[in-house]
Amino acid sequence: MNSQVTTHPTLITVATSPGCPPRLLGQQPGKGREDFAAYRQLGGYLPLASADELLGEVESSGLLGRGGAAFPLAVKLRSVRDNGRLISGAGGTTVVANGEEGEPASIKDRWLLRSRPHLVLDGLRLAAAIVAADRAHVYVSDPESARSVETALGEIGADTLGDISVAVRVVDPGYIAGEETAAVRALNGGPVKPTDKPPRPFEVGVDGRPTLVSNVETLANLPYIQQHGSTAFREQGSSQSSGTLLVTITGADRPPGLYEVPHGLPITELLALHGVSNDRVRGALMGGYFAGLLNRDVLDATVDHETFQRLGSGLGCGAISVITDDCPVAVAASVLAYFDRENAGQCGSCFNGTAAMAAVAGALRDGVATDEDLTRLRRWSVMLRGRGACATLDAATNIAASLLDQFPHSVQHHLDNACQTCQLGAFRADRPYEVEAVSHA
Predict the structure, then answer these.
(1) For residue 409, what are the CA distances in angstroms to 196, 398, 405, 422?
(2) Which of 66, 271, 391, 428 could make an S-S bridge to 276, C-beta 3.0–4.6 Å?
(3) Tens of pLDDT along 39-82?
(4) For 188, how many CA atoms within 13 A lie in the half-sphere containing its CB?
């Protein structure tokens, strides 16, 4: 039977994989919000002896951004710090903890902000020290996350965070709201929409200052590196993707799960942890929606960036939606329709391109597309790539291209109007595999 409801307003599973001591989920994941005293007992908010030495440890750790792009954090930190010195001589930089989490299939940032806000604030403190920032923002769209952070700020003393002022900013949720230039634009009082690049935030950001915009999970790794060092950080993970990460799993007619796992864990072990049989898997929607679709080759992968790149896909923000009983064509049509609704309406190529690709995918799902339609879809999936101000159009082209390349038999069945799965009722969802609940099992 096809999934007609893709949200789960119930409990979620929060756990670490066997043999993986928790770094991000804490000692008692799923037991409610961790307060200041509990966090300090775990060694949080340690005095920082040298910002330069910590930057060296971050560089040696190989920590990659956990927001989706997997950009080395040390490079961003050094760029913001150096630009701040060039412009003002004494810093004058800003740090933004980006917890907007626009991917509907992801839950990790909301969980951290709601359950371990002090871990995020500690990471924000350390990043601010490295780049010599005196201002910081926690940028979210989830009101409960904002309340959790505000409560955490009220629990700590005036000297805990050092010489930085921290403000919490809540914006309306949206796929594009978490894009770094959209965050900067919103914090500068403008609309929550991306801007053309250059300049990038590390050059000109909030209030015209060099600005570090970093995902909250990325920042949440800094206290571990400060406390244990880069060598210990690399004890988990692969050579190119170090440390642990948070993975959100949805789909397979199961409530969502949030798991802390080491990079390099076989996907089959992750699915077993979530209670999904390999025999049921048709494929997966990777990286939230951004990285597109993968067929059953996903079962041969390990949870790291290099493996998924070799498969022509991506790990992105660590959100994996498992496709079992649903038709990949119908899933792709729903995701493309979502992109059509969520684009910023600023770039003609994105506004028109997402609409065109969504229309073809919808027609294919409904059995009324032609070979000419698919020829146009394939052409658009190539020629539209890279033409938008943000990554929305690229995400849409990834969905279109991966559907055609990964599931040619399903596409042909729809051209022949012979998809037995969709004849029982096609998958339709406004926000496919959305995670609504953040309470704990």
Answers:
(1) 39, 18, 10, 14
(2) 271
(3) 999 999 999 999 999 999 999 999 999 999 899 999 999 999 99
(4) 20
What whole-number distance in Å separates Cα of residue 187 and Cα of residue 350? Answer: 24
**For the chain, what is the radius of gyration of the CA atoms?**
21
List Cα–Cα distances, 315 to 293, 298, 358, in angstroms.
Answer: 11, 11, 24
Tokens matching residue 409: 């038999």
DSSP state of 252: T
pLDDT one-digit tens code per residue, 285-334: 999 999 999 999 999 999 999 999 999 999 999 999 999 999 999 999 99
Cβ pair 270, 261 in contact under 8 A: yes
Length of the chain (residues): 441
Q: 246, 318 in Cβ contact below 8 A? A: yes
- Residue 40 CA from chain centroid, whole number: 28
Per-residue exposure over 337-365, b if at least 16 CB sit within 10 Å of its own CB, e if not: bbbbebbbebbeebbebbbbbbbbbbbbb
pLDDT in tens, 388-432: 888 899 999 999 999 999 999 999 999 999 999 999 999 999 999
407 burial level (CB within 10 Å; 0-12, 13-18, 19+): buried
Q: How many helices (H) and strands (E) does the chain have?
A: 18, 10
